[in-house]
Amino acid sequence: MMIGAEDRALRYRKEICARTKAARIKAHYSQAKVAKALGISLEAYKTYEKRSPLPHYLIEPWTMIMHVSVEWLITGSDVSNVIPMTGKINLNSANST
Question: Residue 54 sits in which domain range?
Fold first, then answer.
């Protein structure tokens, strides 16, 4: 049975949302901490883990915070699953105010 375009798009969105949540949990960050680091509301961030993938302008900062590649977020596969970084974003300092 062939899967329709709408079904594929829905499955794709669900997979990205699931990877968004999985990466945050693996990093031991709360949703609130990630939302604050991205400069968005907690409610907005929650939607990105439940039903609506991150908007394009948040993908790069999110991947830097989570230390994963854009490729992994989008496809679920990556050779290293880690971005070589010259600097790190410290969420602890973002939460200290």
Answer: 5-94
